[in-house]
Design a protein that fits this description.
heterodimer; A: 112 residues; mainly beta; seven-stranded mixed beta sheet; four-stranded antiparallel beta sheet; B: 111 residues; five-stranded antiparallel beta sheet; globular
Chain lengths: 112, 111
């Protein structure tokens, strides 16, 4: 599946590190999303970008910083994370106002 | 009350039988619902969308929406071992695309 790609697929980082997650979609969509999926918890929406404008910031701590330079690319910049931030981070895309979202393979993040 | 509730399972189904999954939701204004399938270690994959009351069929899958009772269900006919996965129900809060997901129902299809 190459519609939505994410890199890296796995990331281990210390609490003082700075890293970035990258997402790219090849589906011609104009909305992109970051989700967090932790064990035994429902999928949590973090950020929504529609037409490259951030339209949702779901009470996410400032140590997570999204960036959407164009409709095909989405980044999640990470700094001074906590061990409880360890999770699967999923990127998705869709047409604006559509709930039919297409997910990337995710980045498995471990904070040590 | 949770916004979207699903029985976590596991729902154990013999191969060839019908698997029936349910999802209840709290927002009476919801107009559309989505079922996603997530295999272990993989990302969610959209399998069904339903926008109006009644049934929608797609291959072995049937989604049923009852807005009055605020539930949506998914039937998987002729269940196969490859259907073993977690099934997530979702609906959009407010306008369009901000999906709220249930916790998912894990389905195990036994040969």
């Amino acid at each position: 599946e190459t519609g939505v790609t994410q890199t890296p697929r796995h990331l281990v980082m210390g609490m003082t590190n700075k890293k970035s997650l990258k997402c790219e979609q090849h589906l011609g969509h104009n909305a992109m999303y970051w989700y967090k999926q932790s064990a035994k918890k429902p999928l949590e929406l973090m950020f929504v970008y529609s037409l490259e404008e951030r339209v949702e910031n779901n009470s996410v701590p400032s140590r997570f910083s999204p960036e959407c330079p164009n409709s095909s690319h989405l980044f999640l910049h990470l700094h001074t994370l906590q061990p409880e931030d360890s999770a699967l981070y999923l990127c998705a895309s869709s047409q604006i106002f559509s709930g039919e979202q297409y997910f990337g393979p995710g980045t498995r993040l471990t904070v040590t | 009350q949770k916004e979207v509730e699903q029985n976590s399972g596991p729902l154990s189904v013999p191969e060839g039988a019908i698997a029936s999954l349910n999802c209840t939701y709290s927002d009476r204004g919801s107009q559309s619902f989505f079922w996603y399938r997530q295999y272990s270690g993989k990302s969610p994959e959209l399998i069904m969308s339903i926008y109006s009351n009644g049934d929608k069929e797609d291959g072995r899958f049937t989604a049923q929406l009852n807005k009055a009772s605020q539930y949506v269900s998914l039937l998987i006919r002729d269940s196969q071992p490859s259907d073993s996965a977690t099934y997530l129900c979702a609906y959009p809060k407010a306008a369009g695309n901000k999906l709220t997901f249930g916790g998912g129902t894990r389905v195990l299809v036994k040969p």
